[in-house]
Amino acid sequence: MPEIEFRSDVTVELVRASAHDSDVLFAARVSTQGEQTLTKALLEESDAEAAGKGDAGLINYLMRDRHGSPFEHNSMTFYVQAPIFVFREFMRHRIASYNEESGRYRELNPVFYVPSATRNLVQVGKPGAYDFLPGTAEQAALVDQLTREASAHAYASYQRMLEAGVAREVARIVLPLNIFSSMYVTMNARSLMNFLSLRTKREGTHFPSFPQREIEMCAEKMEDQFALLMPLTYAAFNKNGRVAP
């Protein structure tokens, strides 16, 4: 049986992108009076301060007043490795394209997620306003031990069925949600901002969110790439309370 690997991190890589602040500007201008100049129509609706700041002002105006469609004319594709329970949360966002590796067609690798020693373990509060606090040393040790034991036992059962000639699509049913999977996810900036608004916890957010830590780890890495690709859009997103337009 292959050696089991345990990870406490996730992988997010930007594999391709066609995403620039200029994409937002072109889309906004052509929707009114063409691309030649910064349109009077937009300037008249925005404030004088925005008008004086050119491209940054226009993007901020679009974000602030939630003119969302200009933020859709771009594309980012990420390669993600994370435990399956994270992917189930990803796919609640029906605003992206996903292709995930298939346990029907290939044997799944024995890579399992185990929380790090710094991961909060205790949930307090009420639905919609939970806080997560550090656990005791005993709780952390228990989580680590039982996660490793359950993962190893489940993968051994998986291997026994495969060796007996059972189809992969059947054998995989014994595997736990903390086994790693991989996928490509493609989305535009508007969709990504919606994802980030829900899957990160930040001070100054207009609508506070309380994401599970593991999907927040993915969101943070995606946000880093977004900030590099579209700095004016990213700045306006933060300035306006991290609300997707």
UniProtKB/TrEMBL annotation:
* GO terms under biological process: dTMP biosynthetic process; dTTP biosynthetic process; methylation
Q: Which UniProt keywords apply?
A: FAD, Flavoprotein, Methyltransferase, NADP, Nucleotide biosynthesis, Transferase
Xref: SUPFAM superfamilies: Thymidylate synthase-complementing protein Thy1
Q: Give the record's pathway.
A: Pyrimidine metabolism; dTTP biosynthesis
* Cofactor binding annotation: Binds 4 FAD per tetramer. Each FAD binding site is formed by three monomers.
Q: Where does FAD bind?
A: S69, R92, H93, R94, E100, N188, A189, R190, N194
Entry cofactors: FAD
| Record: active site | R199
Q: Which domain of life is it from?
A: Bacteria
EC number(s): the record gives 2.1.1.148
Binding-site residues for dUMP, renumbered to this chain: E89, F90, M91, R92, E100, E101, S102, G103, R104, R172, R199
Where does the record locate the signal sequence feature?
none
**Any keyword rRNA processing?**
no
Molecular function via GO: flavin adenine dinucleotide binding; NADPH binding; thymidylate synthase (FAD) activity; thymidylate synthase activity
The broad enzyme category this protein falls into is transferase
Do you know which CDD domains this protein is assigned to? ThyX
Catalytic reaction(s) noted: dUMP + (6R)-5,10-methylene-5,6,7,8-tetrahydrofolate + NADPH + H(+) = dTMP + (6S)-5,6,7,8-tetrahydrofolate + NADP(+)
- Function of the molecule: Catalyzes the reductive methylation of 2'-deoxyuridine-5'-monophosphate (dUMP) to 2'-deoxythymidine-5'-monophosphate (dTMP) while utilizing 5,10-methylenetetrahydrofolate (mTHF) as the methyl donor, and NADPH and FADH(2) as the reductant.
Quaternary assembly: Homotetramer.
Family to which the UniProt record says this protein belongs:
Belongs to the thymidylate synthase ThyX family.
Q: What is this protein called?
A: Flavin-dependent thymidylate synthase
Give the organism, scientific name: Cryobacterium cheniae
